[in-house]
Amino acid sequence: MIPLLVCCTVAILAWSLVGARLQRWHFSGPVVMVLSGIAIGFAFQDSIETGLNTQLAEHIVELILALLLFVDATEVRGGFFAGARGPVLRLLLIALPVSIVLAVVVGVPLLGTSVFAVLAIACIVLPIDFAPAAELLRDPRLPRRTRHALAVESGYNDGIFSPIFAFALIVLGLSETNGGPLGALEEAIPAAGYAVLVGGIIGGAAGLGARLGARRGWATPSGLRIAMVLVPVVTYACALPLHGNGFVAAFIAGLVYKPARLGRRGFRKNIPHAELSLADDLGVLSSLVMWFVFGAVASLILVTPVEWSWILFALLALTLLRIVPVLLAFLGSGSTLREQAALGLLGPRGTSSIVFGLLAFNAMRDDDANIALYVLIVVVLGSVVLHSLFGRRLAGALAAPDPAGISARRS
């Protein structure tokens, strides 16, 4: 795996030097990393699967996810709902659970595996992540409320999917010992409780410490940046000995850290970029590594037999299994059909799906692991084409006519 890592480093270095130029041609960092990973993956196919299925790889992926969840939770702007409470609640409390149910109902016959294996796969392919198509959140042709709702949903849905994903993996692990769903609930509920407790305590204490240190001049700017990186790592590490869900703990820590750091009105403020920049940059770097690894793994399915039922499920997950729940969630909301279509179609899949997929590949039995990996690759590659390469055209088609350019002036 060392040659593969060297190639990954070289690809990221090259992108970092010409990334701005490539973005003008709508080639974002994730797209470049995927293409690089696919090209390099053909040369190292024999070692890719072996390298992924190791404890070291699993722990690295877990830490990356903990960091990303923490950063997502701290970067939600304008309060918990960024001024879009109604749409966000409809997306998270109605559309999200409906999409999971529909994915399981459709997935069991198409994928030919158990309910809980499909549940785990649904948690892999349904979370939205704007890493490969961040320009969509800045597109002035889309209503600001729509963009804010999508941004907040992408920040929160990982934290919601994480415990469901963990529960599904626990059930699959206990199925061999006849523990079943009840046994999994006995593990999952205390794990979630400990995660909330650990995340709340560490996030709150770290936030208050950063606030006090900054106010009294005890902490340097670089120290505050380092603290932002270490909080999710410490939180994750402390949650595991208590059998808590480390991902949920890191997400809760991010939610609590922000108001604790900024004070009573911190819900509507933003953490200074100077403090968040290191965690943000590490998150971007980790994300690029995951996209390169994904590209290398994607090269595997190009030489395997086509499974049409798996591809059909993946395409449904990317389209109808999100669009239909969103339309149902917004019945009676008063929003236009264009807005609802934008919320349903502009949901790219990205780093979260890749990380969940790699974790599932290590945790699930071989047949289910191969299905999960196959579906993951088709969904994310489809999202790269739909949202990264053609995202701006799609946004233009879904944007309401605005001949006076009012939305562009207001955004």
Automatic annotation (TrEMBL):
Protein keywords: Antiport, Ion transport, Membrane, Transmembrane, Transmembrane helix, Transport
Main location as per UniProt: membrane
Membrane-spanning parts: 30-48, 60-82, 88-108, 115-134, 160-179, 191-213, 233-257, 278-302, 308-331, 343-365, 371-390
Location relative to the cell: Cell membrane
UniProt-listed InterPro entries: Cation/H_exchanger_TM (IPR006153)
Keyword Transmembrane appears in the UniProt entry: yes
Entry annotated with the keyword Aminoacyl-tRNA synthetase: no
Pfam family of the protein (one): Na_H_Exchanger
All copies of domain Cation/H+ exchanger transmembrane, residue ranges: 16-389
Membrane topology listed for this record: Multi-pass membrane protein
Listed name of the protein: Cation:proton antiporter
Native source organism of the sequence: Leucobacter allii
